[in-house]
Amino acid sequence: MGARRAVESKGKGGAAPLPDEMRSLVYPHDGKVVGHPTPGRNTLPGVPSMKKSDRAEAVVLMAKAPIAGRVKTRLCPPLDPRESARLYACMLGDTAAEMSSLARVRRYLFLDPPESVDTLRHPPFSAFEPFPQDGRDLGDRMHDGAATAFRHGARRVVIVGADCPSLSAGTVRRAFRELSTGASVVFGPSADGGYYLIGLSSPDERLFRGFRWSSAEVLRNAAARCRILSAPFSFLPPKRDVDSGEDLLALREWARTHARPACPRTRGWITGLFGPGGDGFPRSRDRTPGSPRGSRSRHGG
Length: 301
Fold this sequence. Notes:
Number of helices: 8
Structural class: alpha/beta
Order of helices and strands: HHEHEEHEHEEHEHH
CATH topology: Spore Coat Polysaccharide Biosynthesis Protein SpsA, Chain A
CATH superfamily: Spore Coat Polysaccharide Biosynthesis Protein SpsA, Chain A
Distance between the termini: 32 Å
Radius of gyration: 19 Å
Strand order of the largest sheet: 3-2-1-4-6-5-7
Helix content: 25-40%
Shape: globular
Largest sheet: 7 strands, mixed
Strand content: 5-15%
């Protein structure tokens, strides 16, 4: 389907529709995939097509080593550094396990800091090819991850982070379908104005350069960049990553009301923190929520 049609169909499946200002950014506006009349021939203008591969699709998982004081620092408070690192380790393990369930997909794990690349080799991480993250900022690192996957023969690449427990293998498969039927870029919008997923039909660095990754305008600006590049794009249903105390409460509620994805490590952590059916934060007087949300779109963790 065309990029515009792909976006407009999202509201029909029960997911919250995108705001009008975001929908208006979709290119092109006439519902046609301009310049890409044949499904599968959706490379960005000016970027050469990749050669075919037995595994035409690849997932790039951008992550950090779960070291206290280096991951999810915006969760402190209400958590302490060791608790936030443990939560991140649970989310990372669950994300890796969920992505491992994708059949006929090549998987890459890009880790920061670079010296941690050999520390996660056991299941579920053994299903991934490990690489160190490389680049000056998040955009450079994501582009490097995508470019690596394309160099190894991928024709469609989906980049995800490790802090969105509601991200399922089915959502990633949906992103691959969008890429194979007309979209050059696919975004998974997150509640903070960034994105929890980006799917690509080619490794165009222009999609990752010149952004303020700590701002709440990341997704809006990325969509505008696609318009400038005449790159058809679509949106997946919105989800919420975990960056703040508010997100922790939302995660607890999500775990209560959704059985899938399974994410057993994260669910176990939630029960351990809040207790069965617990409300509010334990030791609430000592756990003042952190700073207000603002998009970081930090696939590096």
